[in-house]
Every structure is written in C-alpha cells, then in structure tokens.
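Thread: quick sanity check before group meeting

JM: Hey all, I'm pulling together slides for Thursday and realized we never actually wrote out the predicted structure for the chain we discussed last week. Dropping the sequence here so it's in one place. If anyone has concerns about the input, flag it before I start.
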Amino acid sequence: MRHIYVRGVMSVVWFGTALVSGLSGSLETAGFYAILGALFLYSAYGVWKKEKDRNGGR
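JM (edit): ok, ran it. Output follows.
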C-alpha cells in the first residue's frame, strides 16, 4: 500500500511543479511535467486497482 501513496505524492509534486513552471512562463516544461504527473497518477491507480482485485474488493 505504501508504494501507492508514494506514487500519489510524486504525482502531486509533478503537478505542482507543472503549475509553478506554467506560471513562470515555460509552457513546454509545464506540459512535460503535467504528463509526468499524469503518468504517476495512472501508475498509482493501476496498482491500487490491482491490489483491490487481489484482495477481493476490500
């Protein structure tokens, strides 16, 4: 379960970095960081779903 939290936190960090980068005017970098955040979030969701199915929906 811990790795799900770590990936979720990393996703928030990347989205925050994308926001700061976008506000500073570097839109290409902000887009890249947003994609990284989305990938981390997708990864965390995939692992969560896999563990949920493995544990019988608990």
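AS: nice. The two ends are 13 Å apart (CA to CA). The chain has a mean pLDDT of 92.
JM: adding both to the slides.
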